[in-house]
Amino acid sequence: MIDPELPPVSGPSLTASTLPAIRAALRNPTCAEAVGDRDITWSDHVVPGTDVVVTVLRPRVPRAGLFSIHGGGMVMDDRFADLPRLVALVEEFGFVAATVEYRLAPEHPHPAPLEDCYAGLAWFAAEFDGPLVVAGGSAGGGLSAGCALLARDRGGPALAGQLLLCPMLDDRTTADLPGAVWSRAANDFGWRSLLAGQTSPYASPARMPDLRGLPPAFVEVGGAEIFRDEDVAYAQRLAQAGVPTELHIWAGAYHGFDRFAPEAEVTRAALAARSSWLRRLLGIRE
């Protein structure tokens, strides 16, 4: 049952033939539009030795680092998709926030998207001296989890936490919800595009057999979306592996509910839970 405060929303009908038009129709705010009159500056950077572009938002007094990876089912959207969320976090916490432009499937299957994100994360960690959180929603949540795994297995960078919002974690999911914002058909298309016949626990973190040694995790998922069971299972496995893990299942919430209904009570509760976890993680008591 969908929360009555949430408006009806239909998801994209993703196929190889519809993808170009869906990409072309996406409109995200610019940094100037998202920042407005706040005391935040921004700049673009190219990671040395790559074509990876990272946009960095800076408050006047930096406190911690946030590396953001956008969603889009592995096949669409860009680094500006989460700017409103990032600007709010920069303002609230004093984050220096970076958002990365990664190559998209199917033109660039795994490992290209994940390696782009990891290259951006490693560059940002070297540029910023302070606690660093990797964060993302949907496909960005899956890529954030993958970056945390790579950071563990490659010996860095050190991460203070991973903020995983309705993350896309398991290519084996069979969940389906007719009329869902993110459908089984769209999900299958995203995974086929990314994996191109491969299997990898870094691309699909739910396949990773050993989750020990990962940074503290915040996992959030709607109770009315196809990622619910895989996200709950991943959070449980993290906790069982000794990783400090916080899990929130928002009853009646569909995929990306906070973006579609920013004033709904469930969204306010979700934002408060994220902020509480970040304050506790970073030791902010004010």
Characteristic key phrases:
alpha/beta, eight-stranded mixed beta sheet, 286 residues, Rossmann fold, 9 helices
Produce the secondary structure layout.
Blueprint: H1 19-25, H2 31-35, E1 40-46, E2 53-59, E3 64-69, H3 83-93, E4 95-101, H4 112-127, E5 132-137, H5 139-153, E6 161-165, H6 184-195, E7 217-222, H7 228-240, E8 245-250, H8 257-260, H9 265-282
Parallel strand pairs: 3-4, 3-5, 5-6, 6-7, 7-8
Antiparallel strand pairs: 1-2, 2-4
Helix pairs in contact: 4-5
Describe what you observe in this structure.
- The chain is α/β, with parallel strands linked by helices.
- The chain has a single domain (19-282), classed as Alpha/Beta hydrolase fold, catalytic domain (Rossmann fold).
- 35% of the residues lie in helices and 17% in strands.
- Strands 1-2-4-3-5-6-7-8 form an eight-stranded mixed β-sheet, with helices on both faces.
- α3 links the parallel β3 and β4 (95-101).
- α4 (112-127) packs across α5 (139-153).
- It is globular and about 45 Å long.
- The termini are far apart.
- 47% of the residues are buried.
